[in-house]
Amino acid sequence: MTAAAHPALDELIATVALLRAPGGCPWDAEQTHASLVQYLVEECWELIDAIESGDRAEMIEELGDVLYQVLFHADLAAHTPGEDFDLEDVARHMTAKMVVRHPHVFGDREAETAEDVVGFWDELKADEKPHRTSVLDGVPMGMPALALAAKVLTKAEKAGVAPSPRTDGPRVTLSGAPSPSDSFPADEAELGEALLRLVAEARDRGLDAERALRGAVRGFSAEVRAAEASAQTEPR
């Protein structure tokens, strides 16, 4: 099979190398993996904005910005003593990973649904990372609070753990309005408005909604790990 030519990609790779080489850009030459983290995060959020807005021209630009970050890190590693990897190593590792995690495409296993595929991934990741003892291991705790909460809840569900319903204390209200259980938002638009009002009320009361949710997620994460530990010590 003849390899496809990617002249534009090759040109971008060469551009990154030129900017970072002696005589290139002084700013580029001073960067480290750590110093670039803020830009990677910003570029990813800008790409998300472009995707959600449906602006394809913006998507091209923002995908390019994210790609540039990958190329920059790879070139940096290739020229940093002790790191000893480059873009080819990154690509080779990713290809091998995708082949292993898609046995229904590259092997003899069968998958009829997306759920089957997710099951394969969970099994294979467990085999690849036997040092992980909790479903929460590997979850990046630096994620924004809402995304982190959703991720932790999804992982916890696989361990058979769910948040305990609160039976004490006042119910949550939005601008003084009661919140009966049967008035949960009907769709994402209503949910977004409800969340926005809740954040606004928290702000008016001097509360930090992001910090509050992260604290709740940390508490629930501790419950998940405790439940896992208890299950491992129970007689079988």
TrEMBL record:
Name all NTP pyrophosphohydrolase MazG-like domain ranges. 31-106
Record region (Disordered)? 159-188
Molecular function (Gene Ontology), one example: nucleoside triphosphate diphosphatase activity
InterPro entries, alphabetized: MazG-like_dom (IPR004518), NTP-PPase_MazG-like_N (IPR048015), NTP_PyrPHydrolase_MazG (IPR011551)
Q: Which residues form a coiled coil?
A: none
Instruction: State the superkingdom.
Output: Bacteria
Do you know which Pfam families this protein is assigned to?
Answer: MazG
Q: Which GO terms describe its biological process?
A: dATP catabolic process; dGTP catabolic process; dTTP catabolic process; dUTP catabolic process; response to stress; TTP catabolic process; UTP catabolic process
User: NCBIfam families this protein is in?
Assistant: mazG
This chain belongs to which protein, by name? NTP pyrophosphohydrolase MazG-like domain-containing protein
